[in-house]
Structure formats: structure tokens, C-alpha cells
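Input C-alpha cells:
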């Protein structure tokens, strides 16, 4: 007979398996989704090791929200205190600030919608955040400026892509 202590090792591997399986499935479905980024990012939060597919979607959205909030603070700091950026970069940062302010609100709304089973609405808001990060990055490219937000834009885009993929997986199950 197995005691709860005996069951711990077997069940402790399940969440990592679901993370790896989900990231593999999503990276195969969406060519822009990076498997390594997905797996590493999701596993960083301890709650991801004791959750299900719905929980992984929330983890991805919460990570995107945290990153978007941090990026917004970074943008505000650059706008206020950076003396080396030119006027075009500052204009792009100002645009990105608006996009990220809107993105933070959309991610909060997306989490709320997702938690109440409104996957379609959550997906629309997450997609809008992805579009905002891409627009932010393109603004710098169009001005032929080096974006100081490339890493942040990429990370948030990827996290949103993970959440969106999981929402699609959940929708196909129902």
C-alpha cells in the first residue's frame, strides 16, 4: 500500500510533464513560439508545478502582466532620466508607454475573463497585447532606431502566445 509520502515522487513530475508537453504542443502549433522560452518561463513560478492546463494559462498571463508592468516602469524611467536618446527614440518610447499602459489593463481584463470562463474575450485581449508589443518594436524599426525594449517586447509576446495557445487548446477540448 502506498502512503501519501510514497506518492509524492510520482506526482511531483506530473506538472513539469504538463508544462513541457504544453510548450511542445504550442511551439508546434505556433512557429513563433519558442519552446525553451515557454518551458523555462512557466517553470520559474512555483505554482506552475502544482497546476493544470487552465492554471498554466493564468501563470502565462500573470507573467506577461508582471513583465508588462515592469516594462512600463522601465519606459517611464527612460523617458524621464535618459539624456542619450534622440528625439525619435523618445517619441517611440512615448508611443510604447501608451501601448504598455493599455496592455497592462488588457492583461488584467484577460485574466478576469479567463477565470470566469470567457476564453474568447480573454483571447482577444491577449492578442491585443501581443499586437501592442509588436507595434512598439516596429515603431523603432520604422524610425531606424535601436529599440531598448526588444527583449521585453519579445518576452511579453511569447508569454501571451503561450496563454493564447493554451486557451485554444482548452477551447478545442470543450
Amino acid at each position: 500500500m502506498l502512503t501519501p509520502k510514497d506518492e509524492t515522487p510520482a506526482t511531483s513530475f506530473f506538472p513539469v510533464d504538463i508544462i513541457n508537453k504544453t510548450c511542445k504542443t504550442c511551439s508546434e502549433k505556433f512557429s513563433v513560439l519558442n519552446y525553451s522560452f515557454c518551458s523555462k518561463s512557466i517553470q520559474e513560478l512555483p505554482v506552475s508545478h502544482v497546476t493544470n492546463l487552465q492554471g498554466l494559462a493564468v501563470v502565462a498571463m500573470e507573467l506577461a502582466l508582471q513583465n508588462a508592468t515592469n516594462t512600463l516602469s522601465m519606459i517611464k524611467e527612460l523617458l524621464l532620466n535618459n539624456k542619450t536618446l534622440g528625439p525619435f527614440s523618445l517619441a517611440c518610447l512615448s508611443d510604447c508607454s501608451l501601448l504598455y499602459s493599455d496592455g497592462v489593463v488588457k492583461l488584467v481584463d484577460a485574466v478576469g475573463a479567463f477565470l470566469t470562463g470567457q476564453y474568447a474575450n480573454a483571447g482577444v485581449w491577449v492578442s491585443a497585447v501581443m499586437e501592442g508589443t509588436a507595434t512598439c518594436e516596429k515603431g523603432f524599426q520604422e524610425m531606424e532606431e535601436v529599440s531598448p525594449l526588444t527583449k521585453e517586447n519579445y518576452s511579453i509576446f511569447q508569454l501571451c502566445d503561450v496563454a493564447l495557445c493554451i486557451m485554444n487548446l482548452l477551447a478545442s477540448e470543450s
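The two ends are 36 Å apart (CA to CA). The longest helix spans residues 53-81.
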